[in-house]
Design brief:
By secondary structure, the protein is mainly alpha-helical. The protein is built from 41 helices and 7 strands. 64% of the residues lie in helices and 5% in strands.
Length: 806
């Protein structure tokens, strides 16, 4: 037998309801304490005499006594169930287990969290579990769901104790007692009486919304210490900081990856989208997730950070506005996220009210820091917060302590980036903090500090990107990219041409290497169009950078214009280093157009300038470009010599980007020599180095050429795999040239397999992306491209079509 026997459970519950100990009951019925303990635990079935005495002294009615004795002796099915159900009903005059009320809507996307929390609650060492998280994340709703999954583990029930409206921390114990036992409680202090009531109980207390009562949570520890059968599931925006507490951070709902939800099928299956659709259909039954709205719905869910309350509030607006119109209003989230259900607490009916609740709990120093941190678009380090949010050293709290306090209250999230700890707002919380900053009248001063900090950071990065700490600074700039873009946008809006040019001059190499070409060129154009010339030397550096990025992404004509303007300014300023760098860009355009003699002359001039300056990095780059010219001329010996010399230079400089490029080019030279095994060694090392630099462009380029290595070795499956990987990378970066080159690789594979129809289809896809004659191809790819187009032309017998493709 077990303690789950009906009579044992009934005896224990009735005894406790009458406030009797096992010793008290044993004395009443005239049996030993050991006998009562065995009967309650199910180890012993009571005799008729004992059953009758128990029924009498447990204050059952005459009818109930008869049913109880019958159950204790023979357990007829259902004989006592109705009595128990009626007698243990709230308000029947005794304290009874109370169930948590059932929510009116289903919980979406929290299956993993419910399972994890239920398992945590049932572990012997997890008697206090606190759900923490930012406003609107769904802590209370998740806690209720968890409580409904574990009632069988708590024979004395699960009790919800709502604390949101409580204002005095000293009343926590009394409020728990009210929820568990009703208004009647024994004399004495509430805490002592509650502990006595719960001492032998086995129950779960769900303490909801404790964040404003943290000064009084020591009573929770007292209850747990004195009542071994009690467990606590708490919700709070900040941890309780009690011994034995296990924190569970409630995450946002799962969101689709950015820029992937082009169809309803792609968006389906993500919890945030599922919640949006369900809540939208509640107000507009005809709403459906179609391909036409999938992108907008996914963007709305991402725009409110996957926070369930925010998703529900914005979804309720579809009865007035279509998703595309709602998306256009995301710049003012707090105005959009209102009018929640009236049966929710007021603080959950608008997102602003939820945030007001948290903000009002902060002390003045934390409020000031919270507001000032809103200027950081992409989060901040401790150093950045100190220099921007406390530039006047007047903040009434140490910044480190303030960041910890805001993180503990889940108004900030913590992330690891580039080996540093970053403190990051959810975007809806940042918007609210920004409004508080404006209310404080500090917006202008803090923004100036913010811009000045990132200009200093970018200036240093521009110097470091050519040194041995390249990889560190590429990672640092990637971690700070959102802030840097925000600063650049601010400078453009304020029409501050000099600092905007300076920022672009520092960042263009990062944009070039980290595959941000499309966004970078838009930003560069905006800056170059600002009124005023600015520093002519800095403008020339920006034009040179724009030329390289245009060459990456938009072909030679636009790049030629930028390089030409840059060269003119450098020569006027008598800047030999700038002139030498820009000659490289012009030489690459000439080389790609197979004007090899002109390319070599430009590079020879550049090499002379760099040697005069003693610039080892410039010399190495020039030798690399001369190697590519030699490769185009099919001079294998000269190309290998140039590449080997340049590679040695870059290795000695610890220049990771240059090393990766030269390894790639050495691989091409080996492939041109008909040495695919040697080419593979170079290209695999190049790919690994590009991966360390987080350059998707470089990885994709290496994969394309590794695909050509596989083709040379007859490994068609390996070629297909690598070309396919390159296609995916290029698509992810919106790199049109990279995509065209990868598709040309697949066309080369189709040629090798004699698939003329597939070859034509792939070449048509290339033509649909860019004018294939403008694609930035190395000489081997150019030869393969011509072979593919010739095959298509021969098959079709259409010379005009062949001419258009070439």
């Amino acid at each position: 037998m077990t303690e789950q026997t009906p009579w044992g459970r009934m005896i224990k519950q009735r005894r406790r309801a009458l406030d009797l100990t096992q010793a008290d009951l044993a004395k009443r019925v005239g049996y030993s304490v050991i006998t009562i303990r065995k009967v309650e635990s199910g180890e012993r079935r009571p005799s008729r005499q004992l059953a009758e005495r128990l029924a009498r002294h447990l204050d059952f009615t005459v009818a109930q006594q008869q049913a109880f004795v019958q159950l204790a002796r023979s357990e007829p099915a259902g004989s006592l169930g109705p009595y128990l159900s009626h007698q243990l009903r709230p308000g029947a005059g005794v304290a009874v287990p109370r169930t948590v009320s059932s929510p009116l809507t289903r919980l979406i996307g929290r299956e993993a969290e419910v399972a994890a929390l239920a398992g945590m609650l049932l572990r012997p060492d997890s008697r206090l579990v606190t759900l923490v998280g930012p406003p609107g994340i769904g802590k209370s709703r998740l806690a209720v769901e968890v409580a409904q999954t574990v009632p069988d583990a708590f024979e004395d029930g699960v009790h919800l104790v709502a604390l949101a409206t409580l204002t005095d921390p000293a009343l926590i114990a009394a409020t728990i007692a009210q929820a568990v036992a009703g208004p009647e409680l024994a004399a004495g202090s509430p805490a002592e009486a509650l502990i006595e009531l719960l001492r032998e109980r086995r129950m779960l207390l769900l303490l909801d919304n404790l964040e404003h009562l943290l000064a009084g949570v020591a009573v929770v520890a007292e209850i747990l210490a004195a009542c071994p059968g009690v467990r606590v599931l708490a919700t709070s925006r900040a941890p309780l900081r009690l011994r034995g507490e296990r924190q569970f951070v409630v995450p946002p709902l799962a969101l689709p990856p950015p820029d992937t939800c082009r169809t309803a099928a792609a968006a389906t299956g993500y919890a945030a989208v599922e919640l949006f659709v369900e809540r939208a259909q509640a107000v507009d039954p005809e709403f459906t997730l179609t391909d036409a709205v999938a992108c907008d719905v996914a963007a709305l869910c991402a725009g409110v950070d996957g926070v369930p309350l925010a998703i529900e509030l914005v979804a309720a607006r579809v009865r007035l506005l279509a998703p595309v119109a709602l998306r256009a209003r995301l710049h003012d989230r707090l105005a959009l996220l209102t009018n929640g259900p009236r049966d929710l607490p007021p603080r959950q009916q608008t997102l602003r009210a939820a945030l007001d609740w948290s903000y009002d709990l902060l002390d003045p120093g934390l409020r000031a820091l919270f507001a000032r941190l809103s200027v950081f678009t992409g989060g901040c380090t401790l150093a950045a917060a100190e220099q921007v949010a406390n530039a006047d050293a007047a903040l009434p709290v140490p910044v480190l302590d303030g960041l910890a306090g805001l993180a503990d209250n889940h108004l900030l999230q913590r992330e690891e980036r580039a080996g540093e700890r970053y403190f990051v707002f959810l975007e809806t919380i940042r918007e609210y903090a920004g409004q508080r900053l404006r209310e404080r009248g500090e917006e202008v001063g803090i923004e100036e500090c913010y811009v000045a900090y990132y200009l200093r950071l970018a200036d240093r990065a521009g110097r470091e990107l050519s040194g041995g700490r390249q990889e560190v600074w590429f990672a640092k700039l990637a971690a700070e990219h959102d802030n840097l873009r925000a600063v650049l946008d601010w400078l453009v809006q304020q029409r501050r041409v000099d600092p905007a040019l300076r920022l672009c001059a520092s960042l263009w190499q990062f944009w070039h290497i980290r595959s941000h070409q499309a966004a970078a060129l838009r930003a560069l154009d905006l800056v170059l169009e600002l009124p005023g010339e600015g520093d002519p030397l800095v403008r020339a550096q920006v034009l040179d950078g724009a030329g390289w990025i245009a060459l990456d992404h938009h072909g030679p004509d636009r790049a030629q214009a930028y390089f030409g303007q840059a060269l003119g300014l450098f020569r006027i300023q008598r800047c030999q280093r700038g002139e030498a760098a820009t000659l490289h860009g012009l030489a690459i355009i000439a080389r790609d157009q197979e004007r090899y003699g002109e390319a070599a002359r430009l590079l020879d001039r550049s090499l002379a300038l760099y040697r005069e300056l003693g610039d080892d990095e410039g010399i190495a780059w020039t030798l690399d470009h001369l190697g590519m010219v030699a490769l185009g001329r099919s001079d294998q010996d000269e190309s290998e010599h140039f590449f080997a010399t340049a590679l040695a230079h870059f290795r000695s400089l610890h220049h990771a980007w240059g090393t990766a490029i030269l390894l790639h080019h050495a691989g091409l030279a080996a492939l041109a020599r008909g040495r695919p095994g040697r080419a593979r060694q170079f290209l695999e090392e190049a790919r690994a180095t590009f991966q360390e630099l987080a350059s998707d462009w470089g990885v994709a380029a290496s994969l394309v050429d590794l695909g050509h290595v596989c083709l040379a070795e007859g490994d068609h499956a390996g070629a297909a795999e690598r070309f396919g990987q390159a296609v995916e990378l290029a698509r992810g970066q919106d790199d049109r040239d990279g995509l065209a080159r990868a598709l040309l690789g697949l066309a080369s594979l189709a040629v090798a397999e004699g698939q003329r129809r597939r070859t034509a289809s792939l070449l048509g896809a290339v033509a649909g992306i860019v004018d294939a004659g403008q694609v930035h191809l190395h000489p081997l790819e150019r030869a393969l491209y011509r072979r593919a187009t010739a095959l298509v032309a021969a098959r079709a017998g259409d010379e005009l079509a062949a001419a258009e493709l070439t």
